Amino acid sequence: xxxxxxxxxxxxxxxxxxxxxxxxxxxxxxxxxxxxxxxxxxxxxxxxxxxxxxxxxxxxxxxxxxxxxxxxxxxxxxxxxxxxxxxxxxxxxxxxxxxxxxxxxxxxxxxxxxxxxxxxxxxxxxxxxxxxxxxxxxxxxxxxxxxxxxxxxxxxxxxxxxxxxxxxxxxxxxxxxxxxxxxxxxxxxxxxxxxxxxxxxxxxxxxxxxxxxxxxxxxxxxxxxxxxxxxxxxxxxxxxxxxxxxxxxxxxxxxxxxxxxxxxxxxxxxxxxxxxxxxxxxxxxxxxxxxxxxxxxxxxxxxxxxxxxxxxxxxxxxxxxxxxxxxxxxxxxxxxxxxxxxxxxxxxxxxxxxxxxxxxxxxxxxxxxxxxxxxxxxxxxxxxxxxxxxxxxxxxxxxxxxxxxxxxxxxxxxxxxxxxxxxxxxxxxxxxxxxx
Amino acid sequence: xxxxxxxxxxxxxxxxxxxxxxxxxxxxxxxxxxxxxxxxxxxxxxxxxxxxxxxxxxxxxxxxxxxxxxxxxxxxxxxxxxxxxxxxxxxxxxxxxxxxxxxxxxxxxxxxxxxxxxxxxxxxxxxxxxxxxxxxxxxxxxxxxxxxxxxxxxxxxxxxxxxxxxxxxxxxxxxxxxxxxxxxxxxxxxxxxxxxxxxxxxxxxxxxxxxxxxxxxxxxxxxxxxxxxxxxxxxxxxxxxxxxxxxxxxxxxxxxxxxxxxxxxxxxxxxxxxxxxxxxxxxxxxxxxxxxxxxxxxxxxxxxxxxxxxxxxxxxxxxxxxxxxxxxxxxxxxxxxxxxxxxxxxxxxxxxxxxxxxxxxxxxxxxxxxxxxxxxxxxxxxxxxxxxxxxxxxxxxxxxxxxxxxxxxxxxxxxxxxxxxxxxxxxxxxxxxxxx
Lengths: 436, 436
Prior knowledge:
The structure is a homodimer.
Chain A: E1 2-8, H1 21-32, E2 35-42, H2 46-59, E3 62-66, H3 77-85, E4 89-91, H4 93-105, E5 119-121, E6 125-127, E7 136-141, E8 144-149, H5 153-171, E9 176-184, H6 189-200, E10 206-213, E11 216-225, H7 228-246, E12 250-252, H8 258-268, E13 273-277, H9 283-290, E14 298-304, H10 307-314, H11 318-324, H12 329-343, E15 347-353, E16 368-375, E17 378-385, H13 390-415
Parallel strand pairs in A: 1-2, 1-3, 3-8, 13-14, 13-15
Antiparallel strand pairs in A: 4-5, 6-7, 7-8, 9-11, 9-12, 10-11, 15-16, 16-17
């Protein structure tokens, strides 16, 4: 079954705001078995709003709209839809008293304009909004359904989940969307495509999308089916074949972030980590600690921009800094080994590089980054030359560091059945693509 | 003059991707004097694409579209538009040879499918794409203009800037968009509204939008006018009146980030900073070092999650941690003072709190954060109870810390005409809203 999404609001036609409610709505609609065939954004003009609904209702059975339900003159979705469907707007006493109640509880006087929010098209079902004053509306007309929701994301999400989804489910067919999200790192988009095209093209009933984001390529598998177990086992089979094809580059089949995966490895292996960052300026520590519960494995980190602090905090020898320069494989290793020694962590990560835009030289250009990981047996280092601006270079570098943590445990498992007997960082060195 | 934007691509109708090209296009169109009145997203189906263009051309003079110009069967914008306008598709030899040339340079063989990209609707002007194989197309029909651009953002931006903008400028009227972006912190959306509504409502020829994001309220002022100097001086006057009304809460009138503003203050005052973070896990350091050139004022930072490291790295007394707990005003101050002492920075910032979701208690609930700033004369501390999830709490905390840095220099200027004579951190304490 088909659905369209309409977002109402002049602010969504400015360079400042994009309609993101439609991402949530699409996911929920897909799960219920509705394909979204069009999204429209219109401003706060009565004719534009009315025409958008008219056109959508001529094409599809379900139209979900967000925005334009507030109390001000600009909020005219109610009026435009009532007009289009030839319904009068009538005052709903239950809505009125719930708005009054809301203001009473907040200890405020209700402004006169809020009365507008109690006006609903005749025959509409009111969907109670527990988080705001604008109720949602469910309107049926000629076998079609129009759902009006407030534009505030938290209110829209709660209303859809609690009131709209269950009602739509009863109208939906048996077809549902089944879904997998795989993520890889260390491969380009075309390398991923090359590796997996022979696999996914063989599954004509699944849609495969390859999406590139900095330092990460995602593979989204979608199957629409009325046979849940057949669809799930097909996706499972695809996932397994892709996993084999991509090997160590695949880090999740469940849409997790790299810091989630690295964090889980640390936790499962009862290992701890500490970080010493220069050019990434705390980004690696910040990503590791984004994860709830990370305090069990993240001990601490330092951001040592100056050479003085590199020596003072993690014992990078002044002579080494002088001889090799702050951006060098040796200093990356010294950072990783030093922070590990200072904190007593299982692993130490060190990053040094030139994030730009200034500071590059012909020998050490902007984008050059050395990343090292140390354990009790020593350290390994990778050097990379990243493209892009400061933000991208820093992100890429943190991505590689997290991936080195993940791969550390991967190799430990491959070379030994017991984690306790893992042979240390150098055992993996020969299998590594590191240049140094 | 009015324009509509159409984005073509089934991936834009999934829960994964939102059309962001339209933000860039809207800004550029606005600058040229075009109002965007509708945005439409359609999938890769010939009828849907054709209908979207048909409807848009019935409403406005200029339609800008992105996507669907690639080499595969899915890419059918060219065909659908040619069909709608009753034009044949003809091979453009210049496009053909430029695609062949591109493949030759990359040392690859051109796939047969790429020939499709050389097919253009009769009478269309080809807009050479220097960054990819898909050229843009400029098609005029019945006094209307259709511009087709590739969906890849870098290619779309370059093509628009180099080839489309200048041509549209010749068609545009004298009306242009004039624009200011003000940002505040420390006020809620409704407080901002209350302070500035009496001002902006008096300027009926300017549009004012108030946008809330975590820890920050933005005020966007827009004026459409064919009289540049009148519009600019009106916006200048509005900006000055709003600046007065919001006082210290306003941190930029030029759309800068808080870390940019705090960084500029540090740089202009020849001051340096160092950070000691617990719950924010490096986010503050990371934000400070996002800014190019931050190495001139950011000395370094530590992320000390464990009590042991709080003592080892910034000399927080073990007895203090025991007596007051790690999340306490005293420990926040000790972190700020300790990191300042250890690094010799002008200012030290300390953050300790409970980012959740675990770790809260009735006395110290999730969202409780203590933030301290130290200088040579002592330290000041703020305690806040933030709403939301881990990510929001951490962001809010970093926002307050950056704002304390900004306000530090603000008060220094207010209390002394010379920065060198600034009276130190405690002079500002009585004017601060801090609870402790």
